[in-house]
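Supplementary Methods, section 5.1.

A reviewer requested that the exact input to the structure prediction be made available. We therefore reproduce it here, unchanged from the version used in the analyses.
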Amino acid sequence: MNLRYLSYLLYIVLMITGVNTYAAETLEPVAKKGQVIVIYRGPCPSGKTKAAMRKIEKIISYERKNSPVSYSSSPGNWEDGQVGAVDLHASQSAMEKAFAWQESDKKWSKMYDDVAKICGTTVQEFHVHMLTAN
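The structure derived from this sequence is encoded token-by-token as follows.
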């Protein structure tokens, strides 16, 4: 190997490890000013949470393919056993457009209902909270 090639490899290694070290030492804000975080959570018996989470993951996959508004979503289990997801929308307006799409999309609505049914409850028992980042 020539010296130039080895120098280039060393440079790449140092850059990667330096970037990773920097990323590990600093945290970026969860959301930028004006973005909206939406939290969904609903009660679900412990024996049903895995099935509910699989359905929530399918909803998120469906959203990514079909929503006219782009947003990110992550499914999860709350410490008290409830199931749900956290969404990040670019703005209040974008969130409202996403909600309008969700309400009008029959497949999305049925999938959301199915999560509640798996948990032995209704979507009315699910809590939705919104936080606008400052």
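The longest strand covers residues 36-42. These observations are discussed further in the main text.
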